[in-house]
Here is the input.
Amino acid sequence: MYLRRLKYFVAAAEEENFHRAAERLHLAQPALSKQIALLEEELGCALFSRHRGRVYLTEVGRVFLADTRRILHELDVAVERAREAKAGQLGVLDVGIRETAGRSPIVSTAFSHFRRTYPAVELRLHQMTSPAQCAALEAGDLDVGFIYLSPIHDRNLNRFEIATDHFYLALPSTHALARKRQIHLRDLEQEQFIWLARSRKAYYSDALLRTCIDGGLVPRIIQEVDGESTALNLVAVGLGVSFIVGPSTIPALPDIVFKRVVELSTELQLALVWPNGVDSPVIANFVETVRHIAGELKKARVPPNG
Here is the structure.
């Protein structure tokens, strides 16, 4: 059954006149009449009855008209959804995010902007370590990810660098070192450390531990935790101190002070990454959103000349 015959049938049914229906469809009336006759022949029943130059729907015709309108409407919806999907306005985006990436104003603002701009795209966030995100991206289980770059895990991924983060010492606000202007690794020899578990963040845990040892500090680790939120909660109640990662303008938290350690100069590059060779309008729109927000926030931080 040709789709155009359904459209011809609806026009004829609505006009109840083949001549007016033909004009509406920009057809010759004999051509319209032939198409309706072929449709009736295909169905094996009459859709119209004719009387004094007018046509009327039969009972079968009225039932067929209701179903045909529904089919044509659903087809219009399907066409529109296909166009939206092609433009990246519809679909699902699986986003990996490292725990500390949410502190970046670029990341948080980009999420908010993307949700407003593409409300029909479902954003699914997955909190994962950077190496786990890289593996999931290569396996096709994630579409994009916010990670800290490393030469080991992300060689085959596209990237857009967002910010440079640093290690900070988190300590209770009542701690004696909280009032010290400069802190060195040697100042921490007697401290009890809450450490991010190597099983969760091996690359960064090892890098941090090597830096401490090279600087003359062997941390006294009393508790390992899976995430920085847990570490900060334990710091806040005075259980110990901890190293965490954050941007240059790390926000203050109740009962916690963040301090830079002189010898701890390691920089971590926060980046948005996504797979090579994947043609996805949704991914392209998300990447462009992050680029746009990064540019806007950068301009906002630079004072005008003069």
The chain is about 40% helix and 25% strand. The mean pLDDT is 89. The longest helix spans residues 59-86.
